[in-house]
Amino acid sequence: MLRSMRSFFRTVPEGSDGGRLVQLDGVLATVTSAVPARSLPNSVIYETEEALADGVGELRQIYEDAGVLAWTVWVPEYHERAAGLLERDGHKLDASPTAMIADLSAVEPPRDDDPEPDPQPLREDLGLINDLAYGTGDAFQRIFGAGPADPTHTYVARVDGQPAASVVSQDHDGDCSIWWVATVPEARGRGLAPGLMRRALADGRARGCDVTTLQATKVGRPVYERLGYRGLGSIQMWERRRG
């Protein structure tokens, strides 16, 4: 899952104005200055605790120079040294999503009534869905930008012609990882996101993936468990925020 995260986060800043990727020795950081107060798009993922320790000071300076007010480091729960280092450096434990995995051969196939994804998804629709779902103003729209999204991995469901739910997948070393799962408030309770996930996971299996991973909030975890995922422990988000 951590390898998939490092691969996925390389794509996060590419749609935003001024977004860039920073790579230090064993450390990857996304710098998304278009949303300086949002730590998720300004994320750090490291390979070893030693690499993080060597790079944390430089990371702090990089984000400060970019005008970023909040950034986060993803830390597996068993990396106590990294957590202690970040706490001493001014980071606070912001969230502890559950790392989850499922065997694609055991995931339910798409149902007949699962939503048909838009064949020509747009980045702006993906952003709008996530902003409406999570109450983030236009932050996701600034992260994703505008233009066509990859229809092979971007699943957008529409209700009465309007974008209503989203799922994004990525393949990496046999893992069809799942991202940006969201449903706008007025479309909830219709099974749109789980339906899109079933389609995304079936497509991932057809491409040769054998597992799927994701990071679940407390609210999302039961939904993913019903789809066949199981927990692997938590992955913590240690946030540093200025001002």
Secondary-structure class: alpha+beta
CATH architectural grouping of the largest domain: 3-Layer(aba) Sandwich
How many distinct folded domains? 2
Strand content range: 25-35%
Radius of gyration: 18 Å
Low-confidence stretches: none
CATH class of the largest domain: Alpha Beta
Mean pLDDT: 97
Could you name the CATH homologous superfamily of the largest domain?
Gcn5-related N-acetyltransferase (GNAT)
CATH structural fold name of the largest domain? Aminopeptidase
What is the share of helical residues?
Answer: 25-40%
Q: What is the number of E strands?
A: 11
Q: How far is the N terminus from the C terminus?
A: 33 Å
Element order: H for helix, E for strand: HEEEHEHEEHHEEEHEHE
Largest sheet: 8 strands, mixed
Keyphrases for this structure?
alpha+beta, 243 residues, 11 strands, 30% helix, 2 domains, eight-stranded mixed sheet, Aminopeptidase, 7 helices, three-stranded antiparallel sheet
What does this structure look like?
The protein has 243 residues and is α+β, with helices and mostly antiparallel strands. It folds into 2 domains: 2-94 and 237-241, no CATH class; 102-235, Aminopeptidase. Helices cover 30% and strands 31% of the residues. It has helices at residues 2-9, 49-65, 80-88, 123-134, 139-144, 192-206, 221-226, and strands spanning 20-24, 27-31, 43-46, 70-76, 92-95, 98-103, 154-159, 162-172, 175-183, 211-216, 230-241. Strands 1, 2, 3, 4, 5, 6, 10 and 11 form an 8-stranded mixed beta sheet that branches. It has a 3-stranded antiparallel beta sheet with strand order 7-8-9. It is globular. It starts with a helix and ends with a strand. The mean pLDDT is 97.
